[in-house]
Amino acid sequence: MTSVCKKVQTKLEGWYQNLRSNIQGLYLNKKITSKRYRRSLYNVEITDSPPPPSFSSLKFQVVVNQNHEPEEEEELTAVLTSPLSLDSDSGNDYGTPNLLQRIFSLLKNVRPGSDLTRFSLPAIFNIPKSQLQCYGESVYCVNNDILSQCANGATPLERFTSVVAWSISTVRPLMFGVAPYNPILGETHHVSRGNLNVLLEQVSHHPPVSALHATNEKDNIEVIMCQYAIPKLHGTCIETRVLGKRQLKLLDKGESYVMNSPNLVIKFLPVPDVEWLGNVTIKCQETGLEAHLCYKGNSFLGRKGNYRAVRGKIISSLNMKTVSEINGHWDRTVAVKDISNGKTTVIYKAKDVISALKTPVVKDTKGLMACESAVIWAKVNEAILNKKWDKANDSKIAIEEKEREMARNRKLKGETWVPKHFVLTGSKETGDSDWEVKPRNLKLPPAPIDVPL
């Protein structure tokens, strides 16, 4: 019996080692998806007693060591790149392979009329940042604080005109042939610039819905935005309808401005380019002022008279009279002409607002969350910046596969994803423009990522 017990004890010791390895493996995997963890050492104790009368008398137990030292807090890595601006056409941060090679590779993988919301681009087509970051940059990456001008205008018309300028400033030039990553579900992006704190969250993956909340307590400003993009391939171009309500609230004035976004069009012929096109409406119910803008681009024959042009007017909905005319180019200057006296005033200079933008920096590494965009995509960003395309693809696929696995697990358990920072309302059945978001918190704290002033 003694020899038998020794054999059993040997097997149990082997089982014990496997158990420790499995627990440590689970622990290491768990660290990937959380901010920080403290380790508990698991030990298997086997009694070294006289030979028992039967196998059932062998005793072992798994115990938790309560006297362990806490593990040091995990340092999360964030890789941030320069924001999209008037200077970003050259792509100074990174390089991409031959343009024609990327175009042919894209066209052979999609068909006319394809739904591109579920299409995943290889890393060769990506810029080193998430779409969630690009969305946030349009609000927090500026050189002039136009938002504060909106709050400090002396008259309703002055404030409304500043809101029009701010809306135009959220339009940024994009590079042809490359795109940001599709955000994963639950991905967040938290950045501060001066008194402005901005928080974004990917609140839905299919369909892809992004939410933004920004607060400026000094000027008592709140911005709430919901973005839902629908890209479709139409022969020689990809047109992306950018849906969702955008609200800017001047709380001290009791004014709320509601607006939409122009559509994004990627043209392959006759000249490859990316343009913002379509109509934008800005309304303030409290003052009765409305703006109707039209973003224009090149004609098919390549005439550049309307390239990046924006034209429109400000009207009073109380008497339907035109107050001002708007004319200019969103990548240069935009001016308004007062109908009553003919005076023209420049309200927006792109070079002063979205040129030579500063790259955000990590101010508080301990405040970073594992769901932060710059953390989730850090390895992909780094690989793209170093032109290591295979490594970038592998890292990107790993992130996307992990998200699919989590989605499958939720489906098996009958669980429904609930956003952490926003309440999402809407339905696939009620129409693609019905999605709205409401922040769970009225105020936002300073972020661990900061934009230098």
From TrEMBL:
GO terms for cellular component: cytosol; membrane. GO terms for molecular function: sterol binding. Signal peptide: none annotated. Residues 427-453 are annotated as: Disordered. Residues 429-439 have a biased composition (Basic and acidic residues). It holds the Pfam family Oxysterol_BP. Belongs to the OSBP family. This is Oxysterol-binding protein.
